[in-house]
Inverse folding.
């Protein structure tokens, strides 16, 4: 540990030394107020659910397409209003980003996408949009729509990569490749569109060094942000039947140690959008402790201070490894 190096502190506005460049801090600085993401289920599906590339979905994915917290009544404005009403007492002056979360949110005819995306942006309290998708679902007409939206509002696109290792991709039934991801990042960058990459920590048969190799790989890309998920085994997923006894991390300490190693490799300018995972307790199988999201996050922040380390501390010394 570099005892003589001054730690990089990203935010002290809440009285704490925040050693991570969180998306919350970024948005607060950019817009001058609290900005909250509202999760939406736009009614889409995925190419490895409908048979065009595969069936059953990614093995770890819940029946809701990893959008268990998302609202999906079919009326986007109503879903936004209901969520804002629930949050208005806590954050009466907040503004919101409409987050299309469930399934693959660019996997539909472009006219349908246009209608739903602009319906969310029409809400008076919505100041931006985030769109989660797969790296193989960005045809040219969709890219043009995203570019049009990006030119008129604040936006980012989230790409579910999960891992950089081909054998893991195949085992998890992702039905896309690392080349698909590389091409998607390049296409989005050419349009000036911010990209956020999802990685899952704790996938079956992956070692800690493999997970860190995936971190190294995506951090060499020109991306806006990164999202780290802890693998949760949930009811209704294919993993429930194929890996019924699987536990990604035995203890919170095990997970926190890995996350801190990952953070040290992430460039300081890259926004961190997630460090844990959300799964309703009613569907969570393992790790049994992972629903304690606040406990996990508090321990990460505490350990960063105790170890006198921070996001990006090791990046200048670390040699990149290409999987």
């Amino acid at each position: 540990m570099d005892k003589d190096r001054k730690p990089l502190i990203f935010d002290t506005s809440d009285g704490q030394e925040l050693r991570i460049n969180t998306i919350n801090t970024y948005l607060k600085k950019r817009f001058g107020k609290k900005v909250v993401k509202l999760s939406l289920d736009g009614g889409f599906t995925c190419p490895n659910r409908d048979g065009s590339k595969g069936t059953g979905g990614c093995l770890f994915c819940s029946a809701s397409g990893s959008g268990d917290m998302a609202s999906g009544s079919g009326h986007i404005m109503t879903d936004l209003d209901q969520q804002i009403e629930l949050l208005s007492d806590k954050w009466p002056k907040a503004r919101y980003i409409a987050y299309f979360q469930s399934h693959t949110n660019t996997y539909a005819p472009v006219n349908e996408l246009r209608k739903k995306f602009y319906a969310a942006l029409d809400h008076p309290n919505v100041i931006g949009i985030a769109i989660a998708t797969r790296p193989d679902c960005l045809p040219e007409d969709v890219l043009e729509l995203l570019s049009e939206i990006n030119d008129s509002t604040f936006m980012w696109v989230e790409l579910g990569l999960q891992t950089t290792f081909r054998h893991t991709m195949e085992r998890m039934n992702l039905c896309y490749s690392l080349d698909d991801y590389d091409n998607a990042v390049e296409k989005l960058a050419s349009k000036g569109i911010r990209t956020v990459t999802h990685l899952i920590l704790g996938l079956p048969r992956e070692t800690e060094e493999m997970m860190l190799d995936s971190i190294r790989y995506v951090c060499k890309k020109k991306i806006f942000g990164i999202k780290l998920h802890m693998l949760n085994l949930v009811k209704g997923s294919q993993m429930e039947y194929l890996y019924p006894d699987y536990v990604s991390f035995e203890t919170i300490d095990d997970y926190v140690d890995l996350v801190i190693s990952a953070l040290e490799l992430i460039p300081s300018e890259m926004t961190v959008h997630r460090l844990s995972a959300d799964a309703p307790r009613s569907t969570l199988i393992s790790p049994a402790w992972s629903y304690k999201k606040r406990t996990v996050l508090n321990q990460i922040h505490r350990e960063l201070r105790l170890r006198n380390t921070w996001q990006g501390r090791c990046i200048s010394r670390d040699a990149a490894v290409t999987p």
The radius of gyration is 19 Å. Residues 9 and 236 are 41 Å apart (CA to CA). The chain is about 35% helix and 15% strand.
